[in-house]
């Protein structure tokens, strides 16, 4: 009896080992092209949607959250997507970061100050403006408008980052929260560098505690911050105070001037140029580019699309990032296509629809319903399409991982590669006659953006109505 039990246990162990070995072999052979259908189905809804949201800044005056992209072997280059919200009369304090940003003003108006080639450049940005902030360049953002919130979407390129997180901020302005990078030096060192007393240095290094985004000259500020106090002074008094802070009274030596130049320019911009006329610019930084002012690259009755590359806006060349904007009318479709030069990141600005993505082996990678605020990405070479709901327009904005001119290859439509490839060889590849393949390819007379009422997903009200109609039919059949 004991031997039989022992043999049975041995047989079970051998079967288990064989099962594990076969499973390991299959696991090693399977990759993203060959996962089981169950595995693919479980992952497909999350692979190409950016959902790892991290709030990196949160104050009463605004916040910033980032959707992180971890990259991977099918991604040529990771890009994070940031969302900045600022209340009226607020300031994102002077800083520099270890990643380059491309800003897109979604709503509101902004004032951005940037040190560019050792000079302070200031630009006023409005809805639709694109503006680049290089990694390591000191800058600030201000929502100077009354009664209007500022919303900015930005790409965050970590290619030059320190790898300490999504990105690393180095706050120039600050106090106890955020802490200024200047606070790491000894008081005597700063006193000598600024040519002021240690008490004056201690005062400006400890007063700010409202966070990286603060109210400016607003009753909602918890108390008068140093920024607010500066703005309540008359212009001449502000200038004198700044001169005292950054040693304007005396001509600094060459070394001292190099040390304080950038800091001085930033402070003077925020506090000494408040009365600039709207739209006036200073400095030699490149201008912003308004994507809504550009004529669409393609337009028909079903929508339009715009793509910006380095030939349109030269600063994109330095980041190696492109920008695009697409608007689809209700029920229309951006024809199935693929991007041969770049990975694409998309942010839904308004409306809702579906994103369909296909694996290289011809299986479906994703068929996801998306709405305003959702972020998706499509790897280079992967076929995909976007379909607007029938309930209204579908608009999405995004970034690509190449600043070169992108020439998407459309797989369907009157300008598709199938039209170009029409030949006996193509018919043979599909295993049908030439007449048959010609009939299918030529049936669609539109290009790029297509009418697609049958493919467009219904809105929620239509779905509810359809379900209610089915219930009614069931009740009638019973009676």
Secondary structure elements and pairings:
Blueprint: H1 2-29, H2 37-47, E1 53-59, E2 62-67, E3 80-86, E4 90-97, E5 100-107, E6 110-116, E7 119-125, E8 129-133, E9 139-143, E10 150-157, E11 169-171, H3 187-194, H4 198-206, E12 213-215, H5 226-232, H6 235-245, H7 254-272, E13 289-290, E14 298-300, E15 303-308, H8 315-319, E16 322-328, E17 332-338, E18 344-350, E19 352-358, E20 364-371, E21 375-378, E22 384-388, E23 394-400, E24 409-410, H9 417-420, H10 424-430, H11 434-442, E25 449-451, H12 460-478
Antiparallel strand pairs: 1-2, 2-3, 3-10, 4-9, 4-11, 4-12, 5-8, 5-10, 6-7, 6-9, 8-13, 14-15, 15-16, 16-23, 17-22, 17-24, 17-25, 18-21, 18-23, 19-20, 19-22
Helix pairs in contact: 3-4, 6-7, 10-11
């Amino acid at each position: 009896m004991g031997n039989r039990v022992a043999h049975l246990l041995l047989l079970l162990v051998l079967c288990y080992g064989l099962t594990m070995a076969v499973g390991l072999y299959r696991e090693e052979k399977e990759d993203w092209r060959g996962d089981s259908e169950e595995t693919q189905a479980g992952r497909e809804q999350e692979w190409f949607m950016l959902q790892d949201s991290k709030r990196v800044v949160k104050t009463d005056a605004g916040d910033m959250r980032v959707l992180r992209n971890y990259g991977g072997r099918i991604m040529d280059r990771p890009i994070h997507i940031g969302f900045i919200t600022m209340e009226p009369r607020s300031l994102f304090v002077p800083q520099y970061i270890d990643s380059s940003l491309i800003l897109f003003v979604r709503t509101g108006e902004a004032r951005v100050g940037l040190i560019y080639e050792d000079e302070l450049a200031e630009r006023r940005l409005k809805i639709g403006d694109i503006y680049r902030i290089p990694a390591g360049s000191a800058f600030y953002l201000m929502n100077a408008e009354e009664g209007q919130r500022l919303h900015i979407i930005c790409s965050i390129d970590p290619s030059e980052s320190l790898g300490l997180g999504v990105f690393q901020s180095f706050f120039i302005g600050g106090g106890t929260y955020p802490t200024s990078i200047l606070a790491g030096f000894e008081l005597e060192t700063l006193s000598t560098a600024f040519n002021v007393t240690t008490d004056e240095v201690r005062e400006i290094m400890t007063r700010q505690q409202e966070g990286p985004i603060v109210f400016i000259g607003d009753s909602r500020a918890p108390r008068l911050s140093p920024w607010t106090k500066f703005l309540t002074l008359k212009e001449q008094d502000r200038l004198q105070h700044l001169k005292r802070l950054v040693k304007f009274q005396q001509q600094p030596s060459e070394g001292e001037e190099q040390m304080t130049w950038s800091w001085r320019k930033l402070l003077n911009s925020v506090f000494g140029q408040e009365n600039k006329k709207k739209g006036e610019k200073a400095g030699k930084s490149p201008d912003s580019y308004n994507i809504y002012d550009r004529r669409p690259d393609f337009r028909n009755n079903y929508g339009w699309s715009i793509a910006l590359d380095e030939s349109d806006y030269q600063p994109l060349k330095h980041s190696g990032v492109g920008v695009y904007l697409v608007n689809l009318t209700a029920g229309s479709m951006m024809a199935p296509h693929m991007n041969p030069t770049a990975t694409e990141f998309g942010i839904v600005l308004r409306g809702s629809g579906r994103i369909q993505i296909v694996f290289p082996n011809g299986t479906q990678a994703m068929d996801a319903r998306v709405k305003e605020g959702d972020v998706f990405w499509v790897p280079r070479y992967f076929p995909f399409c976007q379909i607007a709901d029938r309930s209204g327009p579908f608009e999405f904005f995004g970034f690509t991982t190449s600043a070169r001119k992108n020439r998407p290859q459309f797989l369907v439509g009157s300008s598709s590669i199938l039209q170009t490839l029409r030949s006996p060889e193509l018919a043979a590849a599909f295993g049908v006659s030439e007449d048959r393949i010609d009939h299918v390819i030529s049936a669609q007379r539109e290009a790029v953006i297509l009418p697609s009422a049958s493919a467009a997903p219904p809105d929620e009200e239509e779905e509810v109505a359809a379900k209610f109609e089915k219930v009614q039919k069931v009740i009638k059949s019973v009676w």
